[in-house]
Structure prediction request, 260 residues.
Amino acid sequence: MKNSFLILGLCGLSVAYAEPRPLPPIINNSTFANGAAYSSRSSASQPMLEMLGRVESLQTEIQQLRGLVEQQEHEISNLKKRQQNIYADINTRMQQLETGRVDVKNISQHENLAIPIAQRKAAVAVKKPIKPKSRASEKAAFNKAFSSVKNSHYHQAIKLFKQFLQDYPAGDYADNATFWLASVYKVINDLPEAKKTFQAVYTQFPKSEKASMAMLKLADIYLQENNTKEAKQLYTQITQQYANTTSAHMAEKKLQNLGQ
Prediction:
């Protein structure tokens, strides 16, 4: 009997140990929450990345545009220097002709340099209003007249410059055209027209870079005519009105030579 109770007790104990024990609560250590936060941060940073890409693209375009601007400035500077060199060369040749007392009849075998009296009496300053023309056509007309000067076709140059001033009295090249017209008159020794036209340069275009040089040329003509009084007055005016210019320095030297 005792053995039976002992056996039953052992069986109950084994059954008790055979039952599964309750498991501890499961802790969710998955990265879902963190993954969701990462996804949120990724989507939030996407517009910032796109904006940075656009900024870099704009910076590249700006650098390219700056390069084009610098290249254009360099080309414009070269063109200006070339034009100044051409003007300086022609001006030097004109001065050599003036001081060398060139025989007008031998300047060109193909040109009749006798200027009609009617043309000499034509006023340079008085112009009628005309319909505006393009800047390109103005430049082409000036270059055509200036080419006649370079080729020593002075009669043709006078005709073309006078026509230019009729067509473009207030054009961008009007001051230059008036100056070179006066210079051609000086070369062919038409001093009355030269004096009147040089005076027109600095009276009509006082802010032009040719104004001081025109005044200096006119003073030289007065000195050539032994009109020392008028020459001194103009030389002095140049030093005062156009101080620190090449013309002013030349005028100062002229005054020193004249004993003033």
About this structure: Confidence is low (pLDDT under 50) at residues 15-19, 26-33, 102-126. Residues 32-99 form the longest helix (68 residues).
